[in-house]
UniProtKB/TrEMBL annotation, chain A:
A Pfam short name: PhoU
GO biological process: potassium ion transport
Chain ranges of the RCK C-terminal domain: 111-197
Entry-linked InterPro entries: PhoU-like_sf, PhoU_dom, RCK_C, RCK_C_sf
The name this protein goes by in its record: RCK C-terminal domain-containing protein
GO molecular function, a single term: monoatomic cation transmembrane transporter activity
Amino acid sequence: MNDDEHSDSNRMEATVRELLTEMKDASETIVDLAYASLMYNSKDIAEKVEEMDRDIDDMKFAIRTKILMAVRTKEDAREMTGVLQVASAADRISEAAGEIVKLLHVPKEERPFINEIINESDEKIMMTRISPKSDMAGNTIDQLAVEASTGTKIIAMKNRYGWIYNPDGDVKLRAGDDIIVNGSLDGFSRLKKFASGDLPWEFPEMEFAED
Amino acid sequence: MDRLDSMLLELKDTSEFMVDLAYSSLLYNNRDIAEEVINMEVKMDELGDEIQKSLLDMAQKNPESVMKAFVAFRLQIAIEDIANAAASIADVVLRGYASSPVIHMSIKESEWTIERATVSETSVLRDKTLGDMRLWSHCGMFVMAIKRGAQYIFRPDKWTALREGDVLIAVGPEESADYFIALADGSRKEF
């Protein structure tokens, strides 16, 4: 194999790796969002799920094309077969999420048991509002390290501009924002106290931050 | 919560756990973990059958519950699909197709990191239960499995006590990985 082919194959690997990471992350978020759409009877969240489902589908086709173009040896083929299987699994998970949001067409009076099940789950979905008294207001999700500090993950939020789904770490939280999180009940109780301003936020220590 | 709802709850929780566990089996290319995912899949199928029979029975006895049966059926099928997808990920490991560095790296770079840490003699976690330590709400790390000697304890509960030498496999935000490892190896003493 000459050098050009080597760098081509490295580029292919990087693209495939990025696509697979994105598919994995999206396939996990989309299931949380699907349950949240039923929980809060939200068409907006359901539409986001449908959009993500289509995106994941596109990524599945993109990853297949990249791999088929680049595979040259039997060993490559074996390794990439595993990658393709994982990509398909992520796609199947997102399709299942798409099926879950279809239940939104059923009037919510007909499906109260779904909320009960979500409320009793290990991973719960809950909503709270950021109070003007809260230390969280004015800080980004990364500055707060919300997941690391409370074990709850913000899967969606509504601010004055509208909904943001699976918000990035650089999104700033402001007073009045509604956040939908998933995580443990225990973690949520702490988060709620931080969000209401009853507890001062414990900012993460920098010594454990990534260098 | 009635028996049917409890079964659906069990189905939902297990499906989510299976996905995390399946990705761990892939990250470590670990057959023991992959086999547990497959075992869970078998139990999920049995539970799914039982749920479907109960739903049909319920709808037959009480025509007003047809809509609930319909919704629960659809939900059960979607959840089973998720569990099947998890099993198909574990299958990559069992068939020996998980050796690619691309797979390993793509999971490592995920927002949700999977970490392994060994409980040392001086660790604050030693001889404490998971319920005492509340790692999940304190640092977001959820312990999925414990390797004790040659045995695995999957899906440990809050009463599970940690022993010196236990290898914890946890999933959580990447910011917490170092903190979690430091608690286990004894270099960090307080939360």
